[in-house]
Amino acid sequence: MKPEFENIPLVKTGKRFEIEVNGHYAFIDYREMGHQIALVHTEAEPELAGTGAAAAVVEKTLHYIEDNQKKLLPFCPYVFAYIKKHPEWKRIVDERFEGYNQL
């Protein structure tokens, strides 16, 4: 993640993980089921396009999942692609996830 995002806190609301950058948001919609967290959709407001904010919110969310001993279900195509690009994160993906072998 780019250094400018390192000190921005990750906020977990009832339905999303988000970061705020200069009054704009990058977020991931999620569902939590017991020991699993399904990441469904990642989005950054247009003002954050190309800044790395979406990647930052993904990385912060993956750390949250790992730190809380949860298993990831990466349904969001952006998160799935992020894990393919950073295969070290496959360690937190639930082995029963349908696309596990494609990561």
TrEMBL record:
Domain N-acetyltransferase: 9-94
Keyword Mitochondrion assigned: no
Alphabetical keyword list: Transferase
Signal peptide: none
Pfam families: Acetyltransf_CG (PF14542)
PROSITE patterns: GNAT_YJDJ
GO molecular function ontology, one term from the record: transferase activity
Designated name of the protein: N-acetyltransferase
Native species: Chryseobacterium daecheongense
